[in-house]
Design goal:
Layout lengths: L1 H26 L3 H36 L3 H24 L9 H27 L5 H29 L2 H8 L6
Length: 179
């Protein structure tokens, strides 16, 4: 599928970037340049991790969409709604065309990702408590919710590492996990 092809291209691009960065780091005498390259590589790894997290749950999302249980359809719709809200939050961060990103929007997206994960987590537990989902589906729902949170955080970390200097990045790292 197009997703698998895109994932393979991302991994290939990552390998090429790593090889290039390694050569540049070895050739440079500037500690500042070497540190910046290291920071950018960490952002690239985070972007690849986000893609991998989403790749790993695609089959679950397809299962939820096609399952006969209304509770699975509801949870699938919540995952879709979260994705749309997160994409809007990403758009608010900015950073296109060489413009700086908004640290406040980045922090807001981080908090949105956590808040929505926690809300969906509580909904999944309500479905488990009410007997609306099987044990296997319960585990899958919780896993998908966690992988979406991990992917969203990884995307934000990639943006942070790409756009912010290390001292600025510490601002995001110091945010409370839940708000």
């Amino acid at each position: 599928t197009a997703f698998e092809e895109g994932y393979a291209q991302i991994k290939s691009l990552e390998g090429a970037i790593l090889a290039f960065a390694s050569r540049v780091q070895n050739a440079t005498t500037s500690r500042e340049v070497a540190d910046r390259i290291h920071h950018l590589l960490a952002g690239g790894r985070s972007a690849v991790h986000a893609t991998k997290n989403l790749k790993d749950i695609r089959h679950n999302l397809t299962h939820f969409a096609n399952a006969p249980q209304a509770s699975l359809h509801l949870q699938n719709e919540q995952f879709r709604t979260l994705s749309m809200a997160f994409n809007e939050a990403l758009a608010a961060i900015g950073g296109g065309a060489g413009k700086p990103i908004s640290i406040e929007a980045l922090a807001s997206a981080w908090q949105l990702a956590q808040r929505e994960h926690d809300r969906i987590h509580a909904d999944i537990y309500a479905h488990i408590r009410d007997g609306d989902v099987t044990a296997n589906d319960s585990s899958s729902l919780l896993n998908v919710n966690r992988e979406i949170l991990n992917a969203n955080r990884a995307i934000l970390i990639a943006l942070r590492d790409f756009h912010l200097e290390p001292a600025e990045a510490e601002t995001l790292e110091q945010l409370p996990a839940r708000q």
